[in-house]
Automatic annotation (TrEMBL):
Domain AAA protein C-terminal winged helix positions: 392-511
Originating organism: Aspergillus indologenus CBS 114.80
SUPFAM superfamilies the record matches: P-loop containing nucleoside triphosphate hydrolases
Superkingdom assignment: Eukaryota
Low complexity biased stretches: 1-19
Residue ranges, compositional bias (Polar residues): 28-39
Residue numbers spanned by region Disordered: 1-75
Protein name: Orc1-like AAA ATPase domain-containing protein
Residue ranges annotated for the Orc1-like AAA ATPase domain, each copy included: 143-289
Gene3D superfamilies linked to this entry: P-loop containing nucleotide triphosphate hydrolases (3.40.50.300)
Pfam families for this protein: AAA_16, WHD_AAA_fung
């Protein structure tokens, strides 16, 4: 025991001397505790060897004092729990308030950005190359004053309240150019224009770009454990965009501003399937509602007739604006002005009339002719291109065709039959050319065209392929003057009628073979026979009959 005490004192002295390693107490020894029989807490008597000396550092004194503090009580434990709960609650409250404030700010920011999208200036005008403050495009060929321009200007400026509009016409007649010119006159204030697409996701992105709406893709509420509504379909996103647009329109109406103008260009690019029809239905429902309330004026631009058919079903406030080729006088005047701008030459009235006879009043054709050095050759190239397009899509293969191409030949032969019917209709017309209006193309009602082709589903495809066109009056005619010239030329080829008739006969034979079933009795091969016995009700034989194959007699030759 004396040896142990001496070893402990020597280790304590070494510790006081500042050695880095503290003394280690033996586990078998326990400190001597004096128990006082009082009501106070039990205190352990400090070892005399561990009494601090005056030279001991203050940090060691404080640590030793903390060790000798009294043990935690119930009150101190409750106070610490309350302090922890208050800290947690304050942290959650601050996080919740920050998340709610961001959510409110984000909703305000969406409406603010969408309202800025209708301020003066529009990306569609910049892409089209329209110079601000001037009365023309950067490229003069995009601008021609048409009779419909004044009406389009009135609609785009916000005066056509209470209706929504559908522009229908062939490709290249100047529908988009008129809309852009009307937007230029008001510098795009209150207008938003975008191109349609068959894919709903791309349609959604283009709509968001026009409205400056991100569809909650820039929402960071997930940092505050707030989930955004982006995880959904494209059609629901489009519906949400229309909801935001409606709020912006209501705000503008309170400030006595003109209604918004939403322009959907190339609406015919939407696919005629289930998703495309749902999209058109959503757009039409909003257009009807906005037209009734005077919030937004919707303008749809389409090259195909089927869009009008889909919208006509539920249309009550829709107005159709047909856009056709230019008449003769405006077309010749535009060509003369274009030619003078690009080449500085004055075309004679005879040359202008020859050009019009070849390409008609289609603005897209006139633009190309105006910029071509050899405009006569280009007129021939345009007519050849239209004829080649028609032949590549709808040429018939004759009576020698294989049965594997029957479906395609049904499509092609129906187009040829309709083209021949238009040529025959042209021969019956008294006037096919007006001195002032120009070409008068033959046309057939849509129901008669379907009856002529004996098919009701091909006409829409022909319209989409720019072979035939269907106007707002449901009249079918050639897509353009060069296409009608191609019809006339092809139908006048030698042997065309016989070739078409042979193709139709071959198609009928193939269909007849497909509907015919052949029944063969193998027992009759090689002169086999069947003997039939007839019996009465009591089983007695009444007679017999023989069933066999008789060889065919040779046909007699004509004398």
């Amino acid at each position: 025991m004396m040896l142990y005490r001496n070893a402990s004192r020597s280790l304590s002295s070494l510790a006081r001397a500042g050695l880095p390693r503290p003394p280690r107490n033996h586990r078998s020894t326990t400190p001597y505790v004096v128990r006082n029989f009082t009501q106070g807490p039990v205190l352990a008597r400090p070892d005399s060897l561990e009494q601090s000396s005056p030279e001991e550092p203050k940090s060691r004194k404080k640590g030793r004092e903390r060790e000798t503090e009294e043990e935690p009580t119930v009150r101190s434990t409750l106070l610490k729990m309350m302090e922890t709960a208050a800290t947690t609650f304050a942290s959650l409250a601050i996080l919740g308030l920050a998340g709610y404030a961001y959510h409110r700010y984000y909703k305000y920011l969406i409406l603010e950005k969408m309202e800025n999208a209708f301020n003066p200036g529009d990306p569609a005008l910049e892409i089209a190359g329209i110079e601000e403050g001037k009365h023309r495009f950067n490229h003069e060929e995009h601008w021609v004053v048409r009779d419909e321009q004044a009406r389009i200007d009135r609609i785009v400026s916000g005066l056509g309240v209470g209706r929504y509009y559908l522009l229908v016409g062939e490709k290249g007649t100047g529908k988009t150019s008129m809309i852009l010119e009307a937007m230029r006159k008001i510098n795009g204030e209150g207008c938003a224009m975008f191109e349609a697409h068959g894919d709903l996701e791309i349609f959604r992105i283009r709509l968001g770009k026009a409205l400056d709406y991100e569809f909650h893709e820039d929402y960071i509420g997930s940092l505050f454990s707030i989930k955004g509504p982006r995880d959904t379909t494209a059609l629901l996103d489009i519906e949400r965009a229309f909801n935001k647009l409606e709020k912006v329109a209501l705000t503008r109406r309170r400030t006595k501003k003109s209604p918004l103008i939403l322009i959907v260009n190339s609406a015919h690019l939407v696919r005629d399937d289930h998703d495309g029809q749902d999209l058109l239905e959503v757009i039409q429902q909003r257009a009807e509602q906005w037209a009734a309330s005077g919030l937004v004026t919707t303008i749809l631009n389409s090259d195909d007739y089927w869009v009008y058919e889909r919208l006509k079903r539920y249309a009550t406030r829709m107005e159709v604006i047909p856009v056709k080729d230019l008449p003769k006088e405006p077309a010749m005047e535009a060509l003369k002005r274009y030619r003078k701008q690009y080449f500085g030459e004055e075309l004679s009235p005879e040359d202008l009339e020859k050009v019009y006879d070849a390409v008609g009043g289609r603005l897209s054709f006139l633009n190309r002719v105006a910029k071509a050095p050899d405009y006569k050759k280009l007129c021939q190239d345009i007519c050849t291109a239209e004829k080649t397009w028609f032949l590549n899509k709808c040429w018939i293969l004759g009576p020698e065709m294989d049965d594997d191409v029957m479906d395609q030949q049904k499509y092609a032969s129906a187009a040829m039959v309709l083209a021949k019917a238009l040529v025959e209709e042209e021969k019956k017309m008294k006037h096919v050319y007006h001195p002032e209006l120009g070409h008068i193309l033959p046309e057939i009602p849509l129901h008669e065209a379907r009856q002529i082709m004996t098919r009701a589903d091909f006409v829409q495809s022909y319209d989409h392929e720019n072979i035939f066109t269907i106007d707002s009056r449901a009249m079918v005619r050639a897509d353009s003057v060069p296409m009608q010239n191609a019809f006339r030329e092809i139908c006048n080829w030698p042997g065309f009628d016989e070739h078409l008739e042979g193709t139709l006969t071959r198609i009928g034979d193939i269909e007849s073979l497909g509907r015919t079933r052949e029944l063969t009795i193998k027992d009759l091969w090689n002169q086999g026979k069947y003997q039939l016995v007839m019996r009465d009700g009591k089983g007695r034989e009444q007679g017999a009959a023989e069933f066999s194959v008789v060889e065919r007699e040779p046909e007699k030759e004509d004398e």
